[in-house]
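tokens incoming
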């Protein structure tokens, strides 16, 4: 995250208004909910895990055991069960 000088981006009237509440401190202004990205959208992690989990379900349906999948993917038996039995 990069810091931006308020005086460079805010109108003077708004800067004066904010200064009545806080001066010389850092303020985080969150993104509007409509502009937020979901976890993993930017990095591609969400897509990776979705595809991996679909593959795990497909392999399980073809007869692989939970223990086999656990070893193959380096996940706990409980994690494999959660993936297999989730409603996604």
């Amino acid at each position: 995250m990069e810091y931006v000088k308020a005086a460079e981006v805010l109108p003077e009237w708004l800067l004066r208004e904010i200064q009545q509440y806080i001066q010389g401190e850092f303020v985080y202004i969150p993104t509007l909910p409509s502009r937020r990205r979901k976890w993993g959208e930017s990095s591609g992690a969400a897509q990776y895990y979705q595809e991996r989990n679909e593959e795990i379900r497909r392999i399980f349906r073809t007869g692989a055991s939970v223990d086999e999948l656990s070893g193959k993917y380096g996940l706990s038996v409980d994690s494999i069960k959660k993936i297999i039995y989730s409603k996604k």
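note: The chain has a mean pLDDT of 91.
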